[in-house]
Amino acid sequence: MIQETLKLVKIHENTHLIDQCIQILNEEWPRESQKRMATMKRSSDNFPICLALINSDDPEKVIGFVKLTSEKPFNPVIFVESLVVVKEYRGKGIGYYYLTPKCNNNGNNKILMCKNIL
């Protein structure tokens, strides 16, 4: 199963992956790279948090990205603003497989999608 070799890492702890994340996002939703960089730099252990999906066999290659936000403590809901997996890895349930545990581990019981999932 492919999910066994994949890992989510925090962008603010792995800043060397930011350029790849920006490229993946811009392939689906073109936007100025400077604006994307500003978003990445706001990532923290609290929300918003930006996560890169990597393969443990090649940890320098980003194969997916997700940005999560929340209104905690007022609302125990996670908002998914961007979720994208590179084309060759799509259709394998990767986004769902990794998104659900991350949200549930933070004590949230609802996930709201705010954009298209690719």
Give helix % range.
Answer: 25-40%
Q: Which overall shape is indicated by the principal axes computed on the Cα atoms? A: globular
Give the CATH topology.
Answer: Aminopeptidase
Question: What is the ordering of alpha helices and beta strands?
Answer: EHHEEEHE
In percent, how much strand structure appears in the residues? Answer: 25-35%
How many domain regions? Answer: 1
Radius of gyration: 13 Å
Task: Characterize the biggest β-sheet.
Answer: 5 strands, mixed
Alpha carbon gap, first and last residue: 20 Å
Annotation field: number of helices? 3
Pfam families: Acetyltransf_1
InterPro entries: Acyl_CoA_acyltransferase (IPR016181), GNAT_dom (IPR000182), NAA80 (IPR039840)
GO molecular function, one term: acetyl-CoA binding
Protein name: N-acetyltransferase domain-containing protein
